[in-house]
Amino acid sequence: MDKALYLAMSGGVQTMNAQTIHANNLANVSTTGFRSDFEQARSMQVYGDYYPSRVYAMTENPATRYTQGDMIQTGRNLDVAVAGDGFITVYDESGQEAYTRAGDLQINAAGQLVTGRGLPVAGVDGPIFLPPFNSINITADGSISIVPQGGAENEVAVLNQIKLVNPDRQNLRKEEDGLIHSRDGQEFDPDPNVQLVSGFIEGSNVNAVEEMTHIMNLARRFEMNVKMMDTIRDNADSSARILQRSA
């Protein structure tokens, strides 16, 4: 009885964990540049002197979907979207390089170029700071040019270049901060083949219908595990009554 109960209990717990992954995907259906996550479950043996016959379910996040989301035109000069493969390099909260597809860029009070979440955007030589300007333009290769404040329209100055990378996806992982990181902790070199499209942002690549379908299927699976536990309890009660009568 205890083996079956453990199996049903662990299956229910891992089904809830799988629901968390898909619920997070669905919650970010409108998040700029969001990459949806996959989930899978597998059976794992419990190791130990007394548990060689115990098996439990384990849910894991094996990969992230890197397909491109919809391109949304905004006409805003600071909005950029990566065309095809590649990532914009930013600095995470610990100051380490991380990678994103979110190109809703802003200028903060210190004149620093940041993402919509406030993460500093990386240039070829570190963070990007801009002086006051009349207008700004970001070209396909990530170069940033401005017309300085008070300057003539033909006084264009190229100040920096956004670091664009296109690493091997096998060396990438998405962490809890929602950013893409390298698995080995190494920084990637700029890739001149990565191109930006100015005046656009990339939407999430989440398929809302697909995620809702997964959530409903997981809900039914959870109910099945609960019913299995109820059945095991009823069987245990019946066995106890039989033993009492025989005694």
From TrEMBL:
Highest rank taxon of the organism: Bacteria
UniProt keyword annotation of NAD present: no
Domain Flagellar basal-body/hook protein C-terminal: 198-241
Principal cellular location given in the protein's record: other
SUPFAM superfamilies: Flagellar hook protein flgE (SSF117143)
Domain Flagellar basal body rod protein N-terminal, first and last residues per copy: 5-35
Keywords attached to this entry: Bacterial flagellum, Cell projection, Cilium, Flagellum
Subcellular location(s) per record: Bacterial flagellum basal body
Single GO cellular component term: bacterial-type flagellum basal body, rod
Domain (Flagellar hook protein FlgE/F/G-like D1): residue spans on this chain: 81-145
Subunit details: The basal body constitutes a major portion of the flagellar organelle and consists of five rings (E,L,P,S, and M) mounted on a central rod. The rod consists of about 26 subunits of FlgG in the distal portion, and FlgB, FlgC and FlgF are thought to build up the proximal portion of the rod with about 6 subunits each.
NCBIfam families for this protein: FlgEFG_subfam, flgF, PRK12640.1
Family according to the record: Belongs to the flagella basal body rod proteins family.
Name the UniProt record assigns to this protein: Flagellar basal-body rod protein FlgF
